[in-house]
What we know:
Layout: H1 10-21, H2 26-33, H3 37-45, H4 69-81, H5 94-104, H6 109-117, H7 127-135, H8 141-147, H9 182-186, E1 192-199, E2 206-212, E3 218-223, H10 228-239, E4 249-252, H11 261-268, E5 271-274, H12 284-293, H13 308-319, H14 331-335, H15 343-350, H16 353-356
Parallel strand pairs: 1-4, 4-5
Antiparallel strand pairs: 1-2, 2-3
Helix pairs in contact: 1-4, 2-3, 6-7, 10-11
Amino acid sequence: MSGGYVPLELSERALIETQLRLGLSPAAIAAGLRRARSTVLREIRRNGWLPEAELSGRGRFRIAGGYRCVVADRRARMLARRPRVPSKLVPGNRLWVMVVEHLRQGLSPAQIARTLARMAEPVRLSYETIYTSFYAMPRGELRSSLLLLMRRRHRARRPQRGRHGPVKPPIPDMVLIDQRPVEVQMRLIPGHWEGDLIIGKGNLSQVGTLVERTTLFVALVKLNSSRADITAEAFPGILNRFDSQLRRSMTYDQGSEMRHHKTLTRNTGVDVYFAHPHAPWERGISENTNGLLRQYLPKGTDLSVFSQDQLHDIAWRLNTRPRKTLGWKAPAELFLPDGAFDFVQHWSQIITPVALAP
Length: 358
């Protein structure tokens, strides 16, 4: 396995117990789990397992040799919560008094950590340790008085964005938005798109969204997965419906679903540019369009139930709406060839003279 050691899960421990009962050796179990033999051996020995040769006369052990997956998993979780080294910052010790005094001087935990590191006798202390030590204190007058020294004075520690989960690898050969031609930024000619995903219930379904920057014309893409290879195949199926002069570029966020952007460019001729991380305003048209689409694709909906024809129908509803930013013209009027869409005829069929009668 790559990326360092990954702790065993309960399902793996259950499999270990089952296969020990069946008489499989630790080496065979490790091979089935695709784990190192030492990982399995260490797991079963630290949780009471004994080889068959040592089980004679020990009637309390069953076939699994004393290993119990639930007990082993509970023990592992308890140890994971226990700090491996004692905390430097303990209420009442010298370092604690120093930190509190710095707080009284108006410094933030990050500034305190940097200040202590630059002293004649430097102290290595993470600002997260300071936060954790204060917020982990039992509720009471002392805790309240310390939290009042914090600038934000939140009652609970708020999780920091980007701290959880594995770091995503960078997208290869990524061209940032700064290198887009001026014509894209100025929205002078159609053919430059913004792309994104709308995510469904439980993050288990998704729909690709495309909006043309000049005319606000929308196209939707049915996706069976957000995997990069699936996205690279599905987006061209929609983009290639349009003439080549209407598919010049696409601006996207740095989502991993666009890792195969070079394949998309090769199959469509569309140059892909990437916005900066955490900068949704750089794709403001896409963000606004996604908000409009939620009228038809509400949050908490399983998006996999929508067919491509249904997505075309939803996109068409948006493309025939008059838009204030377009001088109350519809995107279809400006994007499609002359004469392909008649605004008056379209809406006359929906709003009939009978409906308008007093």
